[in-house]
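We treat protein structure as text, and this decision shapes the records that our systems exchange. This encoding replaces a full spatial description with a residue-level series of whole-number codes. Below, we set out a record of this kind in full and without editing:
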Amino acid sequence: MRYVILRDDDTNALTPVACLDRLYRPFLDRGLPVNLATIPDVALDTRMPNGSLEGFLVTRNGQTEQTLPIGLNQKLVAYLLDNPLYHIVQHGLHHEYHEFDQNSAAEIARRLDEGTRRLLNAGFPKPETFVAPYDRFSRAAVKEVASRFPVLSTGWFELGRLPASWWPRYAIKKLSSAPHWKVGETMLLTHPGCLLSCYRPYDRMLDSIKRQVERQDITVLVTHWWEYFRTGQPDEPFIGVLHKTAEYLASAPEVTVISFRDLAEQSGTRVSL
């Protein structure tokens, strides 16, 4: 059996309900869980190194606040809670550039705890999984995250950014070419890049996903909701690829779509890391 975890990044207080429902209704109707890496208190002026505004702020529309907590969008919160196949994952605090690539353990701890508090205050269950903005962690951040979350999802791990006590396990992971590993009670998952992306050829995207799923026991499939609406209008061909992916995942007899929570609870997955 092959397992797939769908991770959509950057849901925040500005995300329109209509955008998420347009993308993921075919998944929900097929009983497939969708993990939303959710920004607890989104910063409204996050910019890339070239000065451009971050893509997840495409719907900012003149908002002047510095940050907006997810709980302020009651329509969005109600929609997510009414559709239990959405699983909320903590995605940083503000999603500032390389927010968790710093060395102050105290500041990292504050941001982690404040992010969790914002999600709980909005009415969501306590998140069991953490995703760092831009998949960037410092050594101090990895340690603080692991003390709070049973699952850490990222793009890659680097020896110099890991606690020294983790190095033996990391060496075993590297020697075995394992994409996922475990230290103590913390599951450490990597993903093969954003296979569902507007920056990849649409006509080859689904085949790439199928090859990846067939290659390993667990695939974390990452995408970003705003890429499908990056111009303010829906990218119909790209949405079509996403919906074909839903058809494939639901119909492939050897594939089971699970949530991060399923994995953390080992709920019938028989997966060992």
